[in-house]
Specification:
single chain; 362 residues; 2 domains; 6-stranded mixed sheet
């Protein structure tokens, strides 16, 4: 009898209904379950303790509030490559309902790219550098960097403050759908444009053209690295890759314009791929400041190592443009970025764990 009860508990806990989340599909707000963890869930290290997300539309914006807990089973955390435990977060993201595509792309640096439909952030960069030197510009890749960062089967792991986040395609979400027969909306980027899985229409403007696996337009560079870690380009570092326009189906931000089930009139959208860049490293629109504020959240764990508390908080943080302005530059290099009061010029400096453009003293 006891064995039968235990089996029923396991089946109930792993059922799709347990993992279901609120997802916006109308103008109304959608919210879903919030429940305490069971003893068995603690034993198998599930992050289902209180998974909840709420998505609203109001005043030209889409508001996404979540506790940052995945609505699918996660890996075991802590683990050998990631010593942090998943903890509840308090995310409040906002994205435009009518984003505008700009003429030029903006690198996101080490910022959050966007948020999944389950409220978990997409965060492609790492805080692992060659010789632990952020100023070197040689950032290790999470999936191919040759260092065990404890990623689980959904290509995610945990920051020191307990924030679970994705570094590539969130398979825990994607595998619920018949993603090879219909495009799957996975979330929204910080600029408001939608994010889809890697299978899309063969002809971007034609829903009847059949489905194909969309290809990134990045490739490994050939030859040897001229500086930093030296050696042959092998994919360990983000700078090992280069964008070749037209080589794949997607642009430099892993996006393209076309029709989608949710956007029959057409839209610019981003695509997550299982090859570099995995999650886009730039935006074609303007990131909402809600992603900026959540960059330095204080939380549990030691912020002196991997991904040092990058999500929001009460303390003041430089604008995202200040981080973007120093992407790929060295300490002391000249930099500039646009601000409400005009162009700010300065030099790239290491400010604690961050590498930012510091304005010149007047």
């Amino acid at each position: 009898m006891k064995k039968s009860i235990l089996c029923l508990i396991i089946v109930g806990m792993l059922s799709p209904q347990v993992f279901a989340h609120g997802v916006e599909d109308t103008e109304a707000a959608v919210a879903d379950h919030a429940r305490p963890p069971t003893l068995l869930e603690r034993l198998i290290s599930s992050a289902e303790a209180k998974a909840s997300v709420r998505i609203d539309k109001q005043g030209g914006y889409r508001y996404i509030e979540s506790d940052g807990l995945a609505d699918h089973q996660t890996g075991r955390f802590p683990n050998a490559g990631n010593p942090h435990q998943i903890q509840l977060q308090h995310y409040q993201f906002r994205v435009s309902l009518n984003p505008r595509k700009r003429a030029a792309a903006t690198p996101i640096g080490h910022a959050v790219f966007g948020v999944a439909i389950n409220g978990v952030p997409f965060d492609p960069g790492t805080a692992e550098f060659w010789q632990n030197n952020p100023a070197s510009g040689w950032t290790l890749e999470a999936l191919t960097g040759g260092r065990d960062l404890g990623l689980d089967s959904s290509n995610a792991h945990v920051q020191p403050n307990g924030a679970y986040h994705y570094h590539s395609v969130p398979l825990g979400i994607l595998n619920r759908y018949s993603f090879k027969t219909k495009p799957v909306l996975l979330g929204y980027a910080a600029d408001g444009f939608p994010i889809y899985s890697q299978y899309g229409y063969r002809v971007a403007s034609d829903q009847s053209s059949g489905m194909v696996k969309l290809r990134s337009s990045y490739q490994l560079k050939t030859g040897m690295r001229p500086s930093g870690p030296s050696g042959r380009y092998d994919g360990k570092y983000a700078k090992d890759y280069e964008y070749i326009a037209g080589q794949g189906d997607l642009d430099q931000c892993n996006g393209r314009t076309g029709v989608m089930p949710e956007y029959p009139q057409g839209v610019y959208y981003y695509v997550l791929t299982d090859q570099f860049p995995y999650i886009p490293r730039c935006l074609m629109g303007s990131a909402d400041t809600s992603f900026q504020k959540q960059r330095r959240q204080q939380g549990g764990g030691n912020p002196s190592r991997h991904e040092r508390g990058r999500h929001g908080g009460a303390m003041h943080s430089p604008p995202q443009e200040a981080f973007n302005a120093c992407g790929g530059k060295s300490v002391g290099a000249a930099c500039s970025f646009s601000a409400p009061h005009g162009t700010v010029r300065g030099a790239c400096r290491q400010m604690g764990p961050d590498f930012v453009c510091v304005p010149r003293r007047r």
